[in-house]
Design goal:
alpha+beta, Alpha-Beta Plaits, 2 domains, 4-stranded antiparallel β-sheet, two-stranded antiparallel ribbon, 5 helices, 28% helix, elongated
């Protein structure tokens, strides 16, 4: 056992007492670690890290250009999505039925509440022109996102559909 472990006093501090009171009584040579400032807040600790959890998701869905606007309007009008961004054309290269395919597609970036996500995925599956559509659900880190926007998405979507 080394001499530091054998003695509970280190650099003039009674370690046992400091741990019990959670107070350090000596000047540390290390700079203090700053408390986190959560995005969207003006002050430190304006909300604890777990307040929002994951109230929203982003869903990515590629589709043919002729289907993208119709699909986006459908999910927004059903209130399964708060907003859908339609990207301009992307080039997708993939294998399908053993052949290399190259297609122009558009990516839908869909903002949805966590509660409405299952219904949204179901509507996308039923209405997408592909047999196996790309539907990827990504969790949003709500604690690092702009809180008013996250709350707007959460309040705009209707999970009862």
């Amino acid at each position: 056992m080394d001499e530091l472990a054998a003695d509970s006093t280190f650099i003039g501090v009674d370690c046992q007492k400091a741990c019990e009171t959670n107070v350090t009584t000596h000047a540390s040579p290390f700079k203090p670690v700053p408390e986190p400032v959560y995005r969207g807040s003006k002050t430190r600790h304006s909300r604890p890290p777990s307040v929002l959890g994951v109230p929203m998701n982003l869903v990515l869905c590629n589709c043919p250009p002729e289907a993208s606007e119709k699909l986006a309007e459908k999910v927004v009008s059903l209130k399964l999505a708060a907003c859908v961004n339609i990207s301009q054309s992307v080039q997708s290269i993939y294998f399908w039925d053993g052949a290399l395919c190259k297609e122009r597609e558009q990516t839908l970036t869909i903002k949805v509440s966590q509660d409405a996500t299952p219904a949204l995925v179901e509507v996308l599956q039923r209405n997408h022109p592909f047999d196996v559509p790309e539907i990827l659900v990504l969790n949003v880190d709500a604690n690092r996102s702009y809180e008013p926007y996250v709350r707007w998405v959460e309040s705009t979507c209707d999970a009862s559909k």
